[in-house]
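Our consortium's second objective concerns turning raw sequence data into structural hypotheses that experimental partners can test. To show how far this objective has progressed, the report includes one record in full. It was chosen at random from the queue rather than selected for favorable results. The single chain below, 489 residues long, was entered without modification.
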Amino acid sequence: MSSPTSRTRWLVLATVALAQLMVVLDATIVNIAMPSAQAELGFSDNDRQWIVTAYALAFGSLLLLGGRLADMFGRRRMFLIGLIGFAVSSALGGAAGTFELLVAARALQGVFAAALAPAALSVLTTTFTVPAERGRAFGIFGAIAGMGGAIGLLLGGYLTENFDWRWNLYVNVPIAVVALVGGIVLLSRTGGAADHRLDVPGVLLGSVGLFALVLGFSQAEPQGWDAVATWGPLAASVLLLIGFVIRQRTASHAVLPLGVVLDRDRGASFLAILVAGSGMFGVFLFLTYYLQGTLGFTPMRTGVAFLPMVASIIVTAQVQSNLLIPRFGPKVLVPIGMSLAALAMLSFTRLESDSSYLHVLPGLILMGVGMASIMPASFQLATLGVDQRLAGAASALVSTSQQVGGAIGTALLNTLATTAAAAYIADHAPATPEVIAEASLHSFDTAYGWSAGIFLGGAVLAAVLFRRRGDRVARQAAVPAGLEPVVAH
């Protein structure tokens, strides 16, 4: 990619950030629309999960392929293709007259999101190479990754209450059109940087392995961990992904060159993003249940309730990127962010049926500060120092970490919460309305507690795995020719 002017670079960031926001918020915006869609289309509670799962399966399983295609055919081309496809599939979903068509449209959204997300991040990686600008750009991009789910809840509540559930899908069309115009005007016309060959066995092993992984975790809550529908895909995913790693060690045109993952800082970044994606579902999922089910909030009011978290992410991400990351580095800041997120989760365990929103607010703000301490630093280091020919592959792994983390977190926390609720009701029979309400609170507390544990484990791993700032500076001179210079953060 040619070096654009400073003003153009920030317009590129705005374009890419808009596309990223659309992809991230789509993971939660449809949840708000689900009851209305179910009432109109008449599908069962058991089938309801497929509206979410279809998107997650396609998105999560095809990300590595999407990243490789961005490297092969050019980031601009795949970015524009992803935008057009996402807009068309969103329109199809909004117009869906049957449950089957809605699920198919959601799966198609996931396919094009898998092309769009890696291309968007790799555009950012190759556009911002000046250290100071790169830090600010990734601060904004990381903040969007952290707050996209909350914005989805807010926007979903507004559209469902004031328009129609279908607008939760239609809204992607104008967003995509604006990003498409920006992409056509601003992004450089560059061909693929990698050899135009695809490792088909590697693609199949990786994509099917990720598909099986996400499918297995998605079935854990409705089917149970002992069901064949759960452990069968999980077992298959382990075998397939082991085969994928073995294939990548020998393939001449690897989908994911293992050097991208094995760098200590990048590996730590991918792990931090996975942990954050897994743990934060305790906020979006169970706090939404609490606000609506226990405190009686409307969907719109629930979305507004998350705004303080969004604001704290925006402010903290900029402070981190401009002042703290250059001075202290991710080895200090990411574990602090994980610890703050754990404290936020523990604060939620103290919520009662008669608590007010003022009891929720401190945890939301603390969670925002924590996520903004994790995401920008991790996103930046995850793609730092990567050969530009492999920017798509590294970017795909960032999105894959976030998706897989979300799938694991949803399944694990849902199952733990459901089990805790059932045990509480069994111990406090008969199941009166009061007992059921207390069982719900107990299940939420269980999920928050486990989320806190996930974040604390992530804090320890991040503190151990990330290199010290001095080590990173010492390695800078040893970067081979052809790699982007490693920035001494």
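The partners drew two points from this record. The CA atoms of residues 146 and 371 lie 6 Å apart. The two ends are 24 Å apart (CA to CA). Both points have been shared with the crystallography group to help prioritize constructs.
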